[in-house]
Amino acid sequence: IMQSGKVDLFAFIGSSKAADSLIRQHPQPHRLRSLLSLDGKNLGIVMPDADLGVAVKECLSGSTSFNGQRCTAVKLIVLHKSIAKAFCEKFCKAVSELSAGPPFGKHAITPLPEPEKPEYLQGLVDDAKASGASVINECGGQTDRTLVFPSVLYPVTKSMRAYHEEQFGPLIAVAEYEDIDEILSHLAEVHFGQQVALFTSPKPEGSPELARILDACALSTCRVNINAQCQRGPDTFPFAGRKSSALGTISVSEVLRAVSVETMVAGKKRAEVDGISQGSSVFAPVKRA
């Protein structure tokens, strides 16, 4: 279909690799209007003054709902070193309480649709273990065919694939930071830029550190969730991304703008233009009350 050249608008949700491949098949890709929602490596930042109960609950849901297979999932959790141990203990306990089984009923973890995904996830774990990380939760990574119980992988560092790759599955990468500049550096360097979940004090007070993070996010992501997981919606909010996470914005108004092309009939005299345009379904003058 794309090779026919008859496609003028391309709306797509999937990987950037797949989108690039499809766009290249169009004989005139310059005329293709694209609205793309692509990969994400959404960051969960847990600051030293965060409410750990809230952070654990939101990061758990954000990283494991739908088996972690959604672009808006939290795919890398970065903890301030001062609260890392306490967070990990609470988080692993919460993960261990998740039920796993067939997709019938109310199981939190269900079989994955891709038969090759368990092997890929294990590859990320093996790579991280070789560089010093561990699976720190009970039953982490236990596999029955395509049913994979979530692994909490800690501490993940920049040298590991799990730090950079979008795992898109039940593997929770957890890293540490000491200085806020480490967070800012990551936001600048990462290839994706969809959302960030920022966990801090619930008190309605700002700080220089928070201001620096928000300013960096304004240039590297399209949504910052305060004390809440990364998410889609409500539909009144635009859905967008930067870098390799999106092209264009998915919202009612933006989609209407994307499929519209402004055109006009112009002349030196208004009466002349109105007269010639009579009968046109597009350019006929509007009768004003």
From TrEMBL:
The keyword Oxidoreductase applies. One of its GO terms (molecular function) is oxidoreductase activity, acting on the aldehyde or oxo group of donors, NAD or NADP as acceptor. Residues 2-259 form the Aldehyde dehydrogenase domain. The keyword DNA damage does not apply. Keywords: Oxidoreductase. This is Aldehyde dehydrogenase domain-containing protein. It comes from Alexandrium catenella (Red tide dinoflagellate). The lineage of its organism: Eukaryota, Sar, Alveolata, Dinophyceae, Gonyaulacales.
